From TrEMBL:
GO terms for cellular component: cytosol. The gene is glnE. Gene3D superfamilies: 1.20.120.1510, Beta Polymerase, domain 2 (3.30.460.10), Nucleotidyltransferases domain 2 (1.20.120.330). Residues 47-291, 572-824 form the Glutamate-ammonia ligase adenylyltransferase repeated domain. Residues 466-980 are annotated as: Adenylyl transferase. Keywords: ATP-binding, Ligase, Magnesium, Multifunctional enzyme, Nucleotide-binding, Nucleotidyltransferase, Transferase. Belongs to the GlnE family. This is Bifunctional glutamine synthetase adenylyltransferase/adenylyl-removing enzyme.
Length: 980
């Protein structure tokens, strides 16, 4: 049955109406309802064309359910407002027939679709005011929430029993509606923001299985969300957003009243106060809900004028402005400049600042708040009139945009058809006329928004603070997709990974346990961290390396303040962590060393050995002599701080390899000297002074001898210490203290004390791992050896490999005279005449054992270049042509030739010993140069790998020439029998 259009529409919209009307009439015909069309009346048909011109959603619902038109005409539901409580009554009637959860969910969705059509119809035809529309939508949400909750509660109660308090009183959930739902200002396609709470802990009673109240109401909440949010063939009821609850998505789904109150009192932040202004009990136990709102009121509204909120609001205002700029939101009627959000901000700013004293401001709807601002002279009447007019115009525009497809959007359209529809709904003849009025309204809002809590330096500060672009990530709970997009726009390659790292941090137990002040410090710090991470060559790597540190110091937020207030220190931290995971982990484990980052000049200039010794001595002088725990902490801080400075200098390229090892060795020597002094003083205090062989008191006749890397002045990052303890006291004579010991036990306990100070795990970790296996007889020998016994062992018992080790031995701390005697003994043992063939065999056999057990390649591989392929990894230390080969050749040369060239015994490091071999003409200068270059290159590579926390191996095709030179020199000095 054809119909003519009773009103004139643009051709584009007439075509839309023709299409939708034809589809609806076809559905009416199929349903056999054509004879009843006249029952709808001319008024309905006149309005229908306007609604179909404006809403594809309504057209689709009427096509799918043509009978809906007759249902809507009944009781004049399109032409009148529903009475209070009528929405809930209508829903209850529709749900009465539902016996299963599936039927219940279907009934909810069909009810929503029908009333969504009714509300859009009344809005487009202007039979409902703006706030009538928002009230209708909010009432529908309240009714759906309440009746869905009652259904879910009853289902779970039948299975698990009634949740009761510890006193046995029945409990119900309290559902708080936030945002637009709380203020009864829902738009046509709003999410509903909810928080779930229950009065107190307890458990269910009378069911087949008892649950705690927490678990019971968690199940209620999960099922309630699913009933409303899940998309089925019938659509959905409301999209549910739970991110405004404490801790967002990482928090519990439901909270007891006490837990909520505790969270907001101790950790609640200003944006949560801002959000809580609109909170309202929308479903569940209204009486208990009223009690909860009273308990939370002091968090939202301070008792007096809240000047402290002004700065927080300025920050939030700046966030709004930055987000508009960053996202290009000019055409967004909610979020853009002069949009709905700015009107709401103006009202809520006054509420936060003055609401504690002026209870008339403790309201939820924005129009009522604006009226109070005028009535109480917070704002001029003209300003309030302009804001209210603009708000209503913007909300109508928002509804026009969303009515078209029932889609959550506030963006102005770019296509001419949608523009024509919006202009028509808004009552304008053209899009251009509508845009002129829209811009007028938005300009008014923007002007008033700019004047709220204005800061004269606001613009300048914004220009000087690039980190402000990241503030929106930490205010509320942004959508993950938007957050990832923003991170990529800011400079991160993998936005999803960066967002995952930040979420892991914010959900971590340490962050969740932070008090409010600490959390506010974290919120201030994180945007600065992101901004500065984006200055690095690899922002993703910088962030990944620093996040563990931030988590580690979460409960010691003074460190966050340090880095926030010292951007130079934060920059140095990111540079160092980006360059080395070893440094990143070290700082995360021991954040006390962050102080070292405050002075970049000092950071990149490690002190000389005399300065090191004096600095450590001065630090220990400030600690009581008997406070060993504090002394141990001071030693550990000293080591970590100076090791950080060495690593920083190495990374910056200001410290060459040889100097790196020098400084790391000097740090160890300075520490060992003080450790020996502390251990000696402690032993003497307890037991008195031991005696020499002539009966006189000992004056620290004890030395710590370093072997291996520390002896050879070649320490690397993370190296352990190979040590031997030697004394020259009388082992039989007793000490002269209150608890005397014989000398043997005294020196053994002294050695144990030294190892205890070095090895013990404290909150600052260990000083050094100590290896004592190079002492006479190894693990089976005495911990501390007299010089006489040491000499006897070296002269009569020691193996060749032990003499090899002695090449790199030197006194590090203790009695100078005893150290000189040790050096003379070392020279005597190393400089004695040896059978070179036997020596070669012994050295070669020991090297073969090491290679068989430790190398990645079983043989030297000859000189065939094909043996050195990328697939065959090269162990820098143990493989053929590597570090150990060089060390063995140098040690062999010292043992073989120092009897004739005693100058070879002067030094313990491989570089200077090889210089001596060259100067004595024992090894050609060209070969020595190859040896030294290879040794330095290998060690430099090992240092770099250590800083990267990687094993000391490289692809086999690296250092090709160096390896061949070393293998050739080995075959000259220590040829295998088959090569001889």
């Amino acid at each position: 049955m054809p119909f003519s259009l009773p009103v004139t529409l643009p051709d584009t919209l007439s075509a839309v109406v023709d299409h939708h009307l034809g589809q609806w009439l076809g559905a009416v015909h199929q349903a056999g309802l054509e004879p009843d069309l006249q029952q709808l009346g001319d008024s309905f048909m006149a309005e229908l064309q306007l609604v179909l011109a404006g809403s594809d959603f309504v057209a689709e619902q009427l096509r799918r359910d043509p009978v809906m038109a007759w249902r809507l005409v009944e009781d004049q539901r399109l032409s009148r407002s529903l009475a209070p409580g009528e929405m809930a009554q209508l829903l209850s009637q529709q749900l009465d027939a539902a016996l299963t959860e599936e039927q219940f969910a279907q009934a909810l969705r069909r009810f929503r679709q029908q009333h969504q059509v009714r509300i859009i119809w009344r809005d487009i035809t202007r039979q409902a005011s703006t706030m009538d529309t928002t009230r209708d939508l909010s009432d529908m949400a309240d009714a759906c929430l309440e009746q869905a909750y009652r259904w879910v509660y009853a289902q779970l109660e039948s299975e698990f029993g009634t949740p009761c308090s510890e006193e046995g009183e029945q409990q119900h959930l309290v559902v708080l509606g936030m945002g637009k739902l709380g203020a009864q200002e829902l738009n046509l396609s709003s999410d509903i923001d909810l928080i779930f709470a229950f009065p107190s802990q307890g458990e269910t009673q009378g069911g087949r299985r008892s649950l705690s109240n927490q678990e019971f109401f968690t199940r209620v909440g999960q099922k309630l969300i699913r009933l409303l949010d899940e998309v089925t063939v019938d659509g959905f009821v409301f999209r549910v957003d739970m991110r405004l609850r404490p801790y967002g998505d990482s928090g519990a789904l439901v909270f007891s009243f006490n837990a909520l109150e505790q969270y907001y009192q101790s950790q609640g932040r200003d944006w949560e106060r801002y959000a809580m202004i609109k909170a309202r009990v929308v479903a569940g136990d209204q009486v208990a809900g009223a009690e909860l709102m009273e308990r939370l009121r002091p968090f939202v509204y301070r008792r007096y004028i809240d000047f402290a909120a002004i700065e927080a609001l300025r920050n939030l205002k700046q966030l709004i402005q930055r987000e508009v700029q960053r996202k290009g939101l000019h055409d967004n009627v909610k979020l853009g400049a002069g949009g709905i959000r700015e009107v709401e901000f103006i009202g809520q700013a006054f509420q936060l600042i003055h609401g504690g004293r002026d209870r008339s401001l403790q309201q939820r709807p924005i129009l009522a708040v604006l009226d109070m601002l005028a009535a109480n002279v917070y704002l001029p009447d003209e300003t309030v009139d302009e804001l209210k007019g603009a708000y209503l115009f913007l909300r109508d525009t928002e509804h026009a945009l969303q009515a078209i497809d029932d889609r959550q959007t506030q963006m102005l359209p770019t296509d001419s058809l949608t523009q024509a529809r919006v202009a028509m709904i808004m009552g304008f003849d053209s899009w251009a006329e509508f845009r002129r009025q829209l811009e007028l309204q938005r300009s008014r809002v923007a002007r008033h928004f700019a004047g709220v809590i204005a800061d004269p330096d606001e613009e300048e500060e914004r220009e000087q603070a690039p980190y402000t672009q990241w503030l929106t990530l930490f205010t509320g709970f942004p959508e993950p997709e938007q957050a990832c997009e923003q991170l990529v726009e800011g400079g991160f390659k993998d936005g999803a990974r960066a967002w995952e790292l930040l979420q892991h941090l914010l959900r971590s137990p340490r962050v969740r346990a932070m008090q409010r002040m600490s959390r506010e410090r974290l919120d201030v710090f994180l945007p600065r961290l992101l901004a500065m991470a984006c200055e690095q060559d690899d922002p993703d790597l910088a962030l990944e390396r620093v996040i563990p540190l931030v988590e580690a110091v979460a409960r010691r937020s003074a460190y966050l303040v340090l880095l926030t207030e010292n951007p130079g220190a934060l920059r140095e931290l990111l540079v160092l962590c980006s360059a080395s995971p070893l440094i990143a982990e070290e700082i995360a484990r021991y954040p006390v060393v962050l102080d070292e980052l405050l002075n970049a000049g000092r950071l990149y200039r490690p002190p000389e050995t005399a300065e090191l010794i004096d600095e450590l001595r001065q630090q220990l002088l400030r600690i009581p002599e008997d406070d060993l725990e504090q002394q141990m902490e001071a030693l550990r801080y000293f080591k970590r701080a100076h090791s950080l400075r060495v690593a920083a200098s190495e990374i910056a390229g200001s410290l060459p390899l040889m100097k790196v090892s020098d400084y790391l060795t000097w740090i160890a020597e300075a520490i060992l000297q003080q450790v020996l002094q502390l251990a000696w003083q402690d032993m003497v205090r307890r037991h008195g002074v031991p005696k020499r062989h002539d009966g006189t008191p000992c004056e620290l006749d004890f030395i710590i001898v370093g072997y291996g890397k520390v002896g050879g002045i070649e320490l690397g990052h993370g190296s352990d210490l190979d040590l031997v303890f030697i004394h020259d006291g009388d082992t039989e004579a007793e000490t002269d203290g209150p608890r005397p010991l014989d000398g043997g036990r005294f020196y053994t306990r002294l050695g144990q004390r030294i190892i205890h100070i070095l090895n013990t795990h404290t909150t600052a970790g260990v000083l050094y791992d100590v290896d004592m296996r190079l002492r006479p007889s190894g693990d089976a020998g005495l911990l501390v050896t007299s010089l006489e016994a040491f000499a006897r062992y070296q002269r009569e018992v020691a193996w060749t490999w032990e003499h090899q080790a002695l090449v790199r031995a030197r006194p590090l701390a203790g009695c100078v005279q005893l150290g000189e005697r040790f050096n003379r003994l070392r020279a005597e043992v190393l400089g004695r005449q040896r059978d070179e063939e036997e020596l070669r065999t012994a050295v070669r056999d020991m090297r073969k054992k090491m290679r068989d057990n430790l190398a990645t390649q079983a043989t030297h591989g000859g000189l065939d270049p094909t043996a050195f392929t990328a697939e065959a990894a090269f162990d820098l230390k143990q493989d053929a042509g590597g570090i150990v080969d060089i060390e063995f050749m140098v040690q062999y040369a010292v043992l073989a030739w120092s009897c004739r060239y005693p100058e070879l015994l002067r030094f313990t490091d491989n570089i200077r010993i090889s210089d001596g071999l060259r100067d004595a003409g024992l090894i050609p200068g060209e070969d020595v140069q190859h040896l030294q270059e290879a040794y330095k290159a290998y060690r430099a590579a090992a240092h770099r790998l250590a800083l990267q926390k990687q094993p000391g191996t490289v692809p086999g095709d690296q250092f090709h020439d160096y390896r061949h030179h070393i293998i050739r020199l080995w075959q000259q000095l220590l040829p295998d029998a088959a090569d001889a």
